[in-house]
Specification:
Blueprint (H helix, E strand, L loop, with lengths): L2 H5 L2 E7 L6 E7 H9 L5 H12 L12 H10 L8 H8 L6 H4 L13 E5 L4 E5 L12 E5 L4 E3 L5 H7 L9 E7 L1 H13 L3 H6 L32 E8 L5 E7 H9 L5 H7 L7 H13 L8 H8 L26 E3 L2 E3 L21 E5 L4 E3 L2 H8 L6 E8 L1 H11 L5 H13 L5
Antiparallel strand pairs: 1-2, 1-7, 2-5, 3-4, 5-6, 8-9, 8-14, 9-12, 10-11, 12-13
Helix pairs in contact: 15-16
Length: 440
Amino acid sequence: MSSDAKDVKFRLKVMVNKQKTKVLFAEVESDFADVLLSFLTLPLGTIVSVMKKHYGDDEGARVSIGSLTTLYDSLANLNSRHFWTEGGKQMLLNPRSSFESACGKLKLDTTDTQPIKYFRCADRECVIIDDDDAEGFTKKEVSFLVTDNLLMAPIVAGSIIQTLINFGITITQGAELMTVTLGYKEIIDLLKGSLLSNTPLTDVILHQTNKVEYVTKDSPRRRVRTESSTSSSNSKKMRVKATIEKSTNKVCSVKAEEDFVDFLFSLLTIPLGGVEYLLENKTPLTNIDNLYRSVTELIDEKYFVSPYTKKRLSKPELPPKYLSKNHIFPLTEQITPCICFSEDTMVHAGSHKFLKDPKGEKSYVKRPGRYSVTHSLTVSPLGFMGGVFVRKPLFIDAKEMEVEIGLEEALNILNASLTSASPLSDGLRDTILKKQPKQE
């Protein structure tokens, strides 16, 4: 964290109930609204990394995000020889955001990531060209109303009461208006609460940290998106051999080739907004669902710095060269930016540069490869001893089943990984039940 981030402060007007146990809503300026919206731009791997840096990695203090923290740790511990390049592994451990230049110009950037700069060597000196002039997401003159569970709408004269009614907020007798100040620590606590709590604003502002709990809800059978992507990824299938506990039909582990492991590690590069787009705003993360719904439904494009900003937040792209050839989701990546350079007082237009793929062979994980993936997404190379270790404790009550994973199964695994400690069991439950022999 930079020294500047430590000094950043936000002032909020907050309405709390009489007992001071619940935040009813907050009135915030655009700079704070932008920080909330920046949560949607954070890749899943970046969130895990931020939690580790801020809260530590000790058993008692660490903050786990579903099974993504286990997946991230497994990636970090896997020998680099299993990747085409060391750079590819680092892309997964420290995924960049396609919004990082804009986020770097916010009042507070939670990741403290330096935006990419482009250099051109001239005869006497190099000139740095910034790739993005965007400043924030919302217009500076707009204020917003934010609920405890992160629904957000612009404050428009004459409509505040109706907005409160639409949000289901009742201002009871004795409710009190407070002014509070939040800094870097509280913003990171709010990021954590947005993922793990029913009441993130209450937790942070009224210090009700003992109330943090996972937010879970049933996910209906999802309709698979049909939009075309940059490849025929929607029709891609991966095959794994699952070891299943007979008595419960739970997946204990799977044996997989490099394409499935590449897919799992690539989950860490997807921003929260991309997760919301893929899962159609129906995830187990209620607060993030609300934040995304605020972008798509509650905040008109006239309140954003441009209509393009709303579109980008609704369907974020990955940075250039981040999509693996093994990707299965209907996501796109940014094209390599058009680079311009200046020379004295003249500005020369550049062109889209064909940059070398830092991953290597258009994917992250080297082929051929065989891996074991546990129910909690711990990945390890599968050798002879590895196979014995995985199977021996489960031999009596275990069976093996070949499972085909397409787009729908991949979406279910992504959905489960956000909160579940057993995402393979939860994500593949329906697929496994369909393959069971019918009972006479």
